[in-house]
Write a structure and sequence with these properties.
The protein is an alpha+beta fold. It has two domains: 3-182, no CATH class; 220-356, Up-down Bundle (Four Helix Bundle (Hemerythrin (Met), subunit A)), CATH 1.20.120. It contains twelve helices and eight strands. It has helices at residues 57-65, 97-107, 115-146, 162-168, 208-216, 224-237, 241-262, 265-269, 271-277, 279-302, 310-329, 336-355, and strands spanning 3-12, 24-26, 38-42, 45-50, 81-83, 85-95, 172-175, 181-182. It has a six-stranded antiparallel beta sheet with strand order 3-4-6-1-7-8. A two-stranded antiparallel sheet has the order 2-5. Helix 3 crosses helix 4 (162-168) and helix 7 packs parallel to helix 12 (336-355). The chain is elongated and about 75 Å long. 35% of the residues are buried.
């Protein structure tokens, strides 16, 4: 008789060691409703990823304490809601009686004599782990590369550590109408630490459908510019200042090239001037001037002070100058506060350049340069 089994787990959000805690940040909202759940169907496995209040322990703790001014707390009252875990529910069908019996015996730490069925049990564990790890990593990838959560780290989806992580994720299993029991594993847990978010990196409710689509479409890739920006911020946080500067200039170079190709000329110059100039000419001019010439000479001419403030331009120009000194003149020392200011300035300029493009996919607050 073919049977079905159910599993539940709580998957913590992993991050690099240079941060004190781990979290995804949501803006005045959580994807709590049934329609917001991310549902994946793979062969005989149905996977559901859920993020609700129970995944936000600080929010729950404040609500439980009933502090003055915090009674009857609503999610919409919180500018930033920190989520440090994801709920996972799995339904598996087409499970043989022998394999279902093995799942039960292993959970009770009873011996299993049939080696072939034990191999089937391992393959089932592998299927569960890879499915969960892959989809959770997609959520992490979205937040890291499109919302600037550079401190996040994806799970290593390898056979060697599947038992360890299934245990760390507090995996429980239930056979049809049976009781929930622990999915028994013998490996140690995997430690993770992360950091809190900064303003502007929270995911809004309007962005959730795009995250769902990203998780469900496993063939899609993270957008390039925000991915490079997050890499630069991660390098800076680890103390690799020169590498961080080189990386953030690469992001700016890609954003400038995309702007030249896809500029909204009417928005930038007005209809009459746009017709006289044409996008092709702007793209050729950017190619001719190069990155430094474009930022130093072209942008101050075509953008107003309101569009790109002078102090922002100067910070980006200085970043290019310092990058030149490091790469071509052998400069080794680089002030940490300067690198931090360069990262902020370049990310902001990338956002502005995106706003002046006519073919849009995702912005560098969330940013992909249009193709």
């Amino acid at each position: 008789m073919v049977k079905s089994i159910s599993l539940q787990m709580l998957v913590p959000i992993p991050a690099n060691d240079f941060v004190p805690n781990h979290e995804l940040n949501f803006k005045q909202w959580l994807p709590e409703s049934e329609k917001d759940a991310i549902v994946i169907v793979e062969k005989n496995l149905t996977l559901k990823l859920i993020i609700d209040k129970e995944c936000a322990p600080y929010f729950m703790k404040v609500a439980e304490l009933g502090l003055p001014g915090f009674s009857n707390l609503e999610v919409s009252q919180w500018l930033s809601i920190a989520v440090n875990k994801i709920k996972v529910e799995i339904e598996l069908d087409q499970i043989s009686d022998e394999l279902a019996d093995t799942v039960k015996k292993v959970s009770q730490n009873l011996p299993v004599a049939n080696r072939e069925v034990l191999q089937d049990y391992f393959e089932l564990s592998k299927q569960i782990f890879i499915s969960v790890g892959t989809r959770v990593n997609r959520i992490i990838s979205f937040f890291r590369n499109q919302k600037g959560h550079f401190w996040l780290q994806e799970y290593p989806v390898t056979d060697q550590r599947l038992g360890e992580f299934l245990d760390f994720w507090q995996t429980k299993v239930k056979l049809e109408n049976g009781q929930w029991v622990k999915w028994l594993n013998l490996q140690e847990a995997y430690p993770t630490r992360a950091r809190s978010s900064e303003h502007g990196r929270e995911l809004s409710s309007e962005e959730w459908p795009r995250l769902k689509e990203f998780v469900q479409d496993i063939s899609s890739r993270p957008p390039l510019v925000p991915e490079i920006l997050s890499n630069a911020e991660a390098l800076a946080a680890q103390g690799h200042k020169r590498s961080a500067l080189a990386e953030v200039v690469t992001a700016l170079e890609r954003a400038v090239a995309s702007f030249g190709k896809n500029a909204n000329m009417n928005k930038l110059f007005g209809r009459i001037m746009a017709e006289r100039m044409g996008t092709a000419r702007l793209e050729k001019q950017i190619e001719h001037l190069g990155l430094t010439g474009t930022v130093n000479y072209l942008f101050p001419v075509i953008f107003t002070e309101e569009q790109i403030p002078l102090d922002l331009l100067k910070a980006c120009q200085q970043a290019l100058d310092d990058r030149h000194k490091i790469v071509h003149l052998g400069q080794r020392e680089l002030d940490e506060s300067k690198v931090s200011s360069y990262l902020v300035a370049v990310r902001k300029l990338c956002e502005i350049l995106y706003d002046f493009q006519q073919v849009k996919e995702q912005s560098p607050k969330v940013n992909e340069e249009p193709d």
